[in-house]
Design goal:
Number of helices: 1
Number of strands: 10
Helix content: 10-25%
Radius of gyration: 17 Å
Shape: elongated
Largest sheet: 5 strands, mixed
Amino acid sequence: MKKWLLFASALCLVAVLAACGAKSDNQESNNAGNGEAVAADSGATGEAVVITASNWEFDQKEYKIKAGEATNITLKSTDGVHGVKIDKVDNIANGQTKTVTVAEPGTYEMICSVPCGNGHRQMKATLVVE
């Protein structure tokens, strides 16, 4: 019985580590159907924003962009593989750059969209659109 429990625990650990290190092939997700944001892969006229993710935090608590201005947002992971979901804006996969235009000023929550371990639920930041 103890061997079976040890085997099951090891299998769970392998699954968690695989989720942190796997690269998703489904990198094209666009939630711009709400009319608040439009995403494309090029053509930014504004400044670029680089979000650096490590195990269980983003490098900043707050990122700022200008309303109505196309901005390149790049996600770089230094530990494991992460993704970022920006509330009412778009999903950005690990290593991906997307051009995002947000028409409505406001504050948008950003969360890690790839389960990355024990601190995953606390991996949050804010996108401020001025």
